[in-house]
Amino acid sequence: MLRVQWSNSRCKRAPRFILGLLATHGLTDLCWPAEIFLPYLCALLLPAPDVLVTAAFFASSVAHFGADLCSLSGSVALHGALAATACVWGPNAAFDAVMAYMISIHAPMHFKRVLSSERRASCAMSALAVVGGLVGGPMGLPIAAGRVRLCIGHREQRLVVAHVLSSLKLLQ
Fold it and tell me: pTM, whole model, 2 decimals?
């Protein structure tokens, strides 16, 4: 079982294959040149107050989804809709909505950007990431019936910020 923490300590459950695909799309971070790794490591390792980490996570999410939607305002609207969903139908509904977005729009758009970049030859691992996400769950676990517990804490928020920083190279 994959266990991470939400900053509000509430965990969600999601299908293993979805989390596998979403977790492995981050493997494409490893195919970028060395100059990407300094900001990546800084996002992961520099001391920062938790509130700053969460703010960077939110801003990174808005920026990253803006690339999917070709519009920062579209991403702000998406995040507003997710917040409204959480207020009206609860956090589980918002979590399900963001998982649906991630699997149907974000991951495919991310892989499209990676495979159409100038480093596509060295990014062939992105195809392996897709296969890994489809045939295995997080941490190489086989697909199994049921769901995996997912919580996102500050360590995982830092990883998302680092992923977004490395993905900025795709947009240049």
Answer: 0.74
In the chain, the amino acid numbered 117 is S
- What is the residue whose two structure tokens read 């589980």? 92
Please tell me the number of Cα atoms within 13 Å of 149 on its side-chain side.
10
E strand or H helix at 156: helix 154-167
Domain count, the chain: 1
- Domain span at residue 143 reads 12-171
66: its two tokens:
């803006």
Q: Are 15 and 138 in contact (CB under 8 A)?
A: no
Residue 13 β-bridge partners: 149
Residue 3 lies in a domain: no
Residue 4 inside a domain? The answer is no
Residue 29's pLDDT band (cuts 50, 70, 90): confident
